Amino acid sequence: DIPSFNLNTGAKLPSVGMGCWQGQPGPGRDNELVDALVKAINVGYRHLDTATGYQNEGEVGQAVRQSGVPRSELFVTTKLRPGGVHDPVKEFENSFKALDIDYIDLWLLHWPQGFTEDDGGFGAGQACGLEHQKHLGPTFNETWAKMEDIFLNSHKGKVKAIGVSNFSIKNLEILAKTSKVTPAVNQIEAHPYLPEHELVEYCKQKGIHITAYSPLGQYNASIHDDKDLNEIAKKHDVTAATVALSWAVQRGTSVAPKSTNEKRMKQNITLIKLSDEEMKQVNNISHDPKRSTRLNFFVIDKETGKILGWTMEEMGWDVGF
Ligand code: A2P
Question: Which CATH superfamily hosts domain 4-315?
Fold first, then answer.
């Protein structure tokens, strides 16, 4: 069995989940995804992490129903898409219907920024979320208040926990000024090249559990060739990926790596125990500027709300992290 972390709701979240972002759906892909997810559940995964923005809640729900594993043993996360922040009730009902799995375990506000409907999602967007961007859309405080109402009142029982994703310390502090419910989870990009030590520590103190997405660095395959990770891997006769995931779980964050390959699916749920020295060694990797990256962020111009690019370092984004 995969060990779990306790959320501030009392629910248990498996330490390793399956990330369901598989790129855009296409011909033949839908069944492939269902098969891959059923396989993941069969090899032992109990947490499936999807999002409205991934356009595959239908397939994720189908895999849950087909797996033969009791619903109560599975944990399903989905996310309110950035284009849906204006009407969370409608968005929740769509997700609920598409998944068709009796209840949603965890519903996250996908980004601290959102877009208007007519932008069609990740296009030229309008920012929401931060107070100084209020004229461009609802703040994330307002969106969160609607999510709280869905969770506590209007759709009580249909969603077991609510949380956020891609929130910085600054974002969480702005949210805390108006929130009634502390997010159960903040799901962020985190891996040895982006350890987010401060944010992880902050969330621990606030009782907000961190789930790391792209825990293997996703587009930065060099993590697999990393000299420190491989040095440790060799000692334990495992791969660098196993070291990265074991480090993440050992420091108290759950992970949602994705793989469609059965061998790697199994590898990623088989973690090892690192020594204190080895934990330190991984903790310090990102001190090397060549091994410190943020891979997966979009940057929004404060004045216009336009998306400027995807790399914070290039754009000097100062509104969030
Ligand atoms: P594949 O599906 O062929 O296994 P991330 O979770 O950080 O976004 O990374 C996902 C990518 O890493 C996918 O391309 C996946 O490919 C690959 N991957 C997943 N697990 C492993 C592993 N244990 N070793 C090497 N590559 C992996």
Answer: NADP-dependent oxidoreductase domain (3.20.20.100)
